[in-house]
Amino acid sequence: MATKTSILVRPANATAPAGATMPVPGRRPRFSAARTALAVGVAVGSLALGAAGSAQAASVATWEKVAQCESTNNWSINTHNGYYGGLQISLYNWRYYGGTAYAPRPDLATEKQQILIAEKILADQGARAWTCSPGTGLATDHSNPYPDPTPAPPAKNNRVIEAVEGGALHEVYTDATGTWHDNAVPGTAGGIDAVAFSYNAAGQRVIEAVENGTLHEIYTDAAGAWHDNAVPGVGGGISALAFAYNPSGQRVIEAVENGTLHEVYTDAAGAWHDNAVPGVGGGISAVSVQVKPDGTRVIEAVENGTLHEIYSDTAGAWYDNAVPGVGGGISALAFAYNPSGQRVIEAVENGTLHEIYTDAAGAWHDNAVPGVGGGISAVSVQVKPDGTRVIEAVENGTLHEIYSDTAGTWYDNAIPGQAGNATVLSFNLA
User: Fold this and answer.
1) DSSP label at residue 116
2) Biggest alpha carbon distance in the chain?
3) SS3 state at 280
4) Helices (H), 54-201
5) Contact 240, 287 (CB under 8 A)
6) Which has the least CB within 10 A, 203, 285, 335, 423?
7) In the predicted model, is pLDDT for residue 201 greater than 50?
8) Pairwise CA distance, residues 405 & 411, whole Å
């Protein structure tokens, strides 16, 4: 069994990167933002997934009462406050609970689809996830909103990989049938050494890339056209980077500039900033970052071959701690959280893939991934809602998909139809 506590996703005060002012999305008149929370579970015996929450449900009528308070029953509302749709679900939680299988944002999904995702949040967190729940019956109504057989959202199985092949950017992806495609990204210059990839709130691809040591932003517009723009005001000498959005939707890039960690970010006005991260050691060769719901950053970094965790607190102070009990010789890594809120790092140690993770007590573990080939030079990871991991890795220049099933068995398959000579990559589930 797993025990749970809750961390509210929407804090009273969130912090922006040093030097930036991050607007805190406040309540609007008549709208009360849903404070959906992440579960922090206790995994027993392995890195596995927290147990399911209490069995709760609510009828459509009850959900519509909640929506009346949250959004005046406007299921397509987007007031740009960070919360969307009739039940004011944050984009972070929409993605976390599998909503992107329906639409990129809650306000773009149907009422039924929003309720199906809200049911997952309710089962995991209870009625207190919505500030509007008192008086609606959400805490006591245990009805199935859709008693007819309604399939759960499909697993986010379509993969989109931004890979560098021979210095040129390629998009390697699966279609609805599971077939792989490998297409060069049009209009993109060559000489790419590093990439980091995420989706923006509109579901468009945004890639931060190093082109001949200079930071570029490569992205698709609403029409699907690609653009490649140098990021203004950013120093050169960049060798590695990682990228995520903060809760306000601004870009936060952790970049290694001449071995030193810099935070490159946009402020609320869209201006770019490039600040050295204070109090962090040098000799950094690889980074991976996650932005927490309160806006603080957690970075897993390789410093002179050793794994370090670099993080900020809500006061904006930075810390740099060596990760205890982890082997050396690390050359590449990727980092994500599992559904229990524990860190999962896929690291390349002397060419071999290792999974480094924290257990429920906060202790670190470093295990070689069984059944995986050697010669790995680059990795990117996503953790699915069921806690299984999907890793895209470069093995001797060839792209491989390494993944676990729910029984904990690992698989390592070469990706069919993908050209070789890959050097770096970044990956998201579509």
Assistant:
1) H
2) 61
3) coil
4) 60-71, 91-96, 111-125
5) yes
6) 203
7) yes
8) 8
| Residue 381 · residue 422 · CB < 8 Å | no
Looking at the predicted structure, is the pLDDT value of residue 233 above 80? yes
Q: Are 161 and 169 a contacting pair, CB within 8 Å?
A: no
Classify the C-alpha dihedral 299-305-306-307 as positive or negative: positive
Q: What spatial distance separates the first Cα and last Cα of the chain, rounded to whole Å?
A: 31
Query: Number of C-alpha atoms within 13 angstroms, CB side, residue 220?
Result: 17
- What DSSP character marks residue 127? G
* CB distance 51 to 39 below 8 Å: no
Scan for tokens 């201006």, then name that residue.
271
411: helix, strand or coil: strand
Which CA distances in Å does 165 have to 29, 81, 407, 427?
51, 39, 34, 15
Residue 99 DSSP class: G
Tokens representing 362 are: 């906060």
Residue pointed to by tokens 């509109």: 202
Which amino acid appears at position 282 of this protein?
G
pLDDT digits (tens, 9 = 90+) for 157-168: 678 999 999 889
CB neighbours of 226 closer than 8 A, spacing ≥ 6? 185, 186, 187, 188, 218, 219, 220
Length of the chain: 430
- The model's pTM is 0.68
Q: Are 399 and 422 in contact (CB under 8 A)?
A: yes
Name the token pair of 87: 């039940």
| Cβ pair 289, 242 in contact under 8 A | yes
Compute φ and ψ for 13, nearest 5 degrees: -135, 120
Average pLDDT, integer, range 335-362: 91
What is the Cα–Cα distance from 25 to 81, expressed in whole angstroms? Answer: 5
**Vertex 245, ends 289 and 359: CA angle to 5°?**
40
Is residue 211 within 8 A of residue 251, CB to CB? The reply is: no
Q: Are strands 398-404 and 410-414 parallel, antiparallel or unpaired?
A: antiparallel
Angle at 182 between CA 179 and CA 185, to 5 degrees: 135
Highest mean pLDDT of the ranges 33-37, 95-99, 164-168: 164-168
Residue listed under structure tokens 């790995």: 376
Distance CA 149, CA 325 (A): 48
